[in-house]
Amino acid sequence: MNIKDFEKGNKEKIAVIGLGYVGLPLAVLLDKKFNVIGFDINPERIKELKNYYDRTREVTSENLKNCGIEFTNNPEKISQAKVIIVTVPTPIDKHNIPDLKPIKSATKTVGRYMQRGSVVVYESTVYPGLTEEECVPILEQESGLKWKKDFNVGYSPERVNPGDKKHTIDKIIKVVAGDTPEITEFLSQLYGSVITAGIHKAPDIKTAEAAKVIENTQRDLNIALMNELSVIFNKMGIDTKAVLEAASTKWNFLRFEPGLVGGHCISVDPYYLTFKAQAIGHHPEVILAGRRINDYMGKFVAENTVKKLIKAGKAVKGSKVLILGLTFKENIADIRNTKVIDV
């Protein structure tokens, strides 16, 4: 497969499946050099994008006007693409078990319409092994094609940081892995054509999947430590922020802040790793302890608010509370898994 065949003016196309916080910015970036089809199952979303409106506010109207992406909710269009990139959400259910319905549904659709010789790349956050163990059999079943003979797969974890206008998708090093060395090299050239920060080639797909899932697990645990310290210092009457400012004067102190950990990455991804760990017979105590602490913080904030109301001589029942900021982080429109709901 030649990268030049996908460049504008040539016949081959790239399809991006799922046009949310991850898929749309990626499609717009790829469109700078390649022929891109943007597919989403939501007809309302497609209508908005055709009218140059992005409800996630990640892509401006001007950028949408200037791009040449073919936006569609017609799955038959997928058959026109030789490279198919899946960027659908990977949430958890109410029991904190990975909800694979979106990624399995997208894989079925891709399998139904993909052509022989296609490369299917997953960017969604998954546990190590999911691409090859869960997605490949669905692709084979739906397409009637054989893996590594008629089609190939790859994995390149998304690293989008919603609302961040500094660390945009092209300025973050892209990890790529294919099911063969040739596919890894092809993906390196494809993404490397538009991502200026550079490419890291992982030795295999499982390594790339694992790298993604630990990025947010590490941050989750670091924030959990700060949250637990804030609970301890609160009981001791010590200002946590003042403690962190003092500790931060040492060169190797990592300055994480306590807070409500929500959203679709940090509060979700660790459960994909713990699910797989338990499936292979290991109980991940540290990761789950961090999750428990961070999930408790909404209750902690609410209880402290009640205590402050009582201390101020206010009646708790019937009091009105103003919450400034509803989304899971500042300057975005996304309220998925916001812990403000807990408060």
Shape field? globular
Mean pLDDT: 94
* Alpha-beta content class: alpha/beta
Q: State the strand order across the main sheet.
A: 3-2-1-4-5-6-7-8
**Major sheet summary line:** 8 strands, mixed
Counting H and I runs of at least 4 residues, what is the number of helices? 10
- Rounded to the nearest angstrom, the distance between the terminal CA atoms is 53 Å
Unreliable stretches: none
Describe the structure.
By secondary structure, this protein is an alpha/beta fold. 41% of the residues lie in helices and 10% in strands. It has 10 helices and 8 strands. The chain has an 8-stranded mixed beta sheet, sandwiched between helices. α7 (205-236) packs across α9 (269-279) and α7 (205-236) runs parallel beside α10. The protein is globular and about 70 Å long. It starts with 12 loop residues before the first strand and ends in a 32-residue tail after the last helix. The model has no long low-confidence stretch (mean pLDDT 94).
